[in-house]
C-alpha cells in the first residue's frame, strides 16, 4: 500500500531531519572554527612554502601550550612565570583585565575550580529555586559569616549572576555532578538529569 504524500507530512519530516542534522552541523562547524582559528595563530611566514601543511599551525600551537605548561611546573622557570604574573597583577589598568581572565580560567579549569559545588538556591521567592554553584562558603570578609556566594548561570548564554545569600536558602545537590547541573541550567531545563539523584538532592539541606 502506497503512502500518501501530504504537505503536512513533508513539513513534519523536514523538521525531523532538521532536528537530526542541526546539532551535528553546528558541532562540526564549531570544531572547524576552533581548528582554523588556532591553526591561523601561528604565522605562516615562518614556515617555508614547501612545508605549509593545513593543520601544522594547530599542532605547533598546541605543542607550544603543552611546553609552557610543562616549563611552568619546573622550579626555576615556574619562578620566572610567577614574577611575570605578579608584574601583570600590579600594572595599572592591565591588572583588572589580567586578574579577571585569570580568575575565570582558574574557576573553570584550574586547580581552584569553583563551579564544582552545585546547589539549588532560593532568591526571589521561598518556593522558587535556581540551579547555581557555591563559589565562596564564608563571607566573613564582609562581616557576614552566615552568608555564601552563589553563581547562577543564565540559560542559553555564557553570562550569569552572582548572589550573596544566607545558608538556609541553599540546598546542595549532592547526587548531581557539576557538569550535569551546569548542562541542566544552561539548557533552560530542557536537558534532563537523573530523576532519582535530582530528587534526592532536593531533600538535603546544608549543615
Attribute tags:
single chain; 5 strands; five-stranded antiparallel β-sheet; alpha+beta; 6 helices; 207 residues
Order of strands across the biggest sheet? 4-3-2-1-5
Biggest sheet character = 5 strands, antiparallel
Average predicted local confidence, pLDDT: 77
| Helix-strand string | HHHHEEEEEHH
- What integer value in Å does the Rg equal? 24 Å
Total helix count?
A: 6
Q: Whole-Å distance between the termini?
A: 66 Å
Structural class by helix and strand composition:
alpha+beta
Poorly predicted spans: 195-207
Shape: flat
What is the percentage of strand-forming residues?
Answer: 5-15%
Helix content: 40-55%
Q: What does this 3D model show about the protein?
A:
The protein is an alpha+beta fold and 207 residues long. It has a domain at 118-202. The chain is 47% helix and 14% strand. The protein has 6 helices and 5 strands, in the order H-H-H-H-E-E-E-E-E-H-H. The chain has helices spanning 7-39, 56-72, 75-90, 94-108, 178-186, 195-202; strands at residues 118-121, 130-136, 147-153, 160-166, 170-172. Strands 4-3-2-1-5 form a 5-stranded antiparallel sheet, covered by helices on one side. Helix 1 crosses helix 2.
Compact description:
By secondary structure, the protein is α+β, with helices and mostly antiparallel strands. It has six helices and five strands; from the N terminus they run ααααβββββαα.
Amino acid at each position: 500500500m502506497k503512502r500518501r504524500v501530504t504537505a503536512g507530512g513533508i513539513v513534519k519530516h523536514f523538521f525531523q531531519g532538521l532536528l537530526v542534522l542541526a546539532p551535528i552541523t553546528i558541532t562540526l562547524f564549531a570544531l572547524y572554527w576552533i581548528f582554523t582559528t588556532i591553526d591561523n595563530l601561528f604565522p605562516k611566514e615562518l614556515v617555508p612554502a614547501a612545508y605549509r601543511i593545513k593543520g601544522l599551525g594547530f599542532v605547533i600551537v598546541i605543542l607550544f601550550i603543552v611546553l609552557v605548561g610543562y616549563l611552568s611546573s619546573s622550579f626555576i622557570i615556574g619562578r620566572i612565570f610567577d614574577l611575570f604574573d605578579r608584574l601583570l597583577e600590579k600594572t595599572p589598568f592591565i591588572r583588572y583585565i589580567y586578574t579577571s581572565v585569570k580568575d575565570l580560567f582558574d574557576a573553570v579549569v584550574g586547580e581552584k575550580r569553583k563551579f564544582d559545588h552545585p546547589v539549588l538556591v532560593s532568591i526571589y521567592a521561598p518556593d522558587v529555586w535556581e540551579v547555581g554553584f557555591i563559589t565562596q562558603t564564608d563571607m566573613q570578609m564582609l562581616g557576614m559569616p552566615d552568608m555564601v556566594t552563589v553563581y547562577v548561570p543564565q540559560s542559553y548564554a555564557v553570562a550569569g549572576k552572582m548572589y550573596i545569600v544566607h545558608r538556609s536558602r541553599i540546598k546542595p545537590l549532592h547526587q548531581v555532578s557539576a557538569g550535569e547541573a551546569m548542562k541542566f541550567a544552561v539548557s533552560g531545563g530542557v536537558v534532563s538529569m537523573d530523576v532519582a539523584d535530582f530528587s534526592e538532592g532536593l531533600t538535603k539541606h546544608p549543615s
